[in-house]
């Protein structure tokens, strides 16, 4: 099958640091290539992929030091290039937010599939989708699709990862046993809750996280004063090579979100190392965390403190086994292949009917 994947241009594929969407695109594209499909990735030139790379910008937007850049113009240029080359592909798989590509491909929605990787409860998304209701959509969790139930959903496909890139540590370090916070230091991710949990349990907390431009004031005013460098330590933003030690040595990942998380990739990254997750009952986390098996889903700081006290009841080998069964890249890719095949059959059937 000839498949085009169209990635956001904010990060490279895979991202050099933070970036769950681009990481999943990388895993999916490489697995499709391994299976023998003809795959083209539309992304920035600093991406690294086993697919054919259609570079539409010299580098990803976030790490581009130029002070004047336009994300909108960059994505429009990419979409025009995809439209120009659309005849080369059986399926066009879009990973863009806010339906930016719909007007470009309204004459061929049946040849596309869209995986929105973000939240869908923005006020303007429902009326926008009603203008282009034929576009097939795949949600990354059942929770994600609730604000847009009327969309043309053709599946829900949980994320998956290669089983061999993250593995449990053979031996944990002498520094092991802390609580870990990984992701973004934003108000929605609630690092202040993680700090409170650490203080109330008496455990150390290590935070490895990105501080975005929009989050700097929140970090400076709310989080930074709580970091003492001893019980609460901020490590900065880490890359892939550092995750094994960071997550593998943790007693648990604390995921105290305060927003409708569409999936929560960091949760399954922790599980890959056998590390359980203590997550808030928000968004997709109840779908991702098996209660009392791979971690605990909680509703308050009190609940989280009690959950941390029960971490010793969980089997880290079983956490890893559940990860392998539920969140492998091969399972994710097989799920997408079934969607592609179904859409391709429908497209060919429509073309045959028009020809006759």
TrEMBL record:
Ranges where the Glycosyltransferase subfamily 4-like N-terminal domain occurs: 18-129
Organism: Pseudaminobacter soli
Protein name, UniProt field: Glycosyl transferase
Pfam family of the protein (one): Glycos_transf_1
InterPro entries linked to this entry: Glyco_trans_1, Glyco_trans_4-like_N, Glycosyltransferase_grp1
Molecular function GO terms recorded: glycosyltransferase activity
Record Gene3D superfamilies: Glycogen Phosphorylase B (3.40.50.2000)
Keywords: Transferase
Domain called Glycosyl transferase family: residue spans: 177-315
